[in-house]
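Problem 12. The chain below contains 194 residues. Write out its predicted structure in token notation.
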Amino acid sequence: MNESLKENTIWGAGTLAACTGLYLITNRITDGFEGSYKMYFDWELEIALIPWMILIYSSFYGLLVLVFLTSKTREDLTNLSYSMVFCAVVAAVCFVLFPGELGYTRAEDAGVFKPLYDLLFVLDKPTNLFPSLHVAFSYVAVVFFVDQTARAPLKLLAWTWLIAICFSVVLVHQHHVFDIFSGLALGWLARRVI
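Solution.
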């Protein structure tokens, strides 16, 4: 393994481990909180579950790996890592102060995708909702990737991937519309602050 790839892997693994750890800790803290905040409209509950969208939802992890592995300089790596940690810390504070209420019931009939949903539900409690870290991290990763490439088709693909992830978080019934917009705002803020 060349030195650059090794460094990128270490930074990526460390960043994602820290962010995941913080998320899981806040998930544990807020599990069972009495007071939760309903940040959705009743009409959102009519949005149908689209089971196969779990594949787009899960592709988020590939996006994060891709962006860390394609980072070209140490400065890029640190900016990317600090942006994601910033998102995780701000979101953790929001999760503890304002635990969310998920309006959807957990997927009972997800067909062949049920094992993926079951795994998701074991790891995730429905209180860490807003801002959506799925969306915030994806925004940071896509903006970072777009800044790194000069090829227009790759930029278009990256923006399309972000939009698909934004839709997927609602279509797998993990988030509501407010969570998407607050996640985008957090990602935008992280890229401005770091």
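Discussion. The first helix runs from residue 3 to 30. Students who got a different answer should revisit the alignment rule from Section 12.3.
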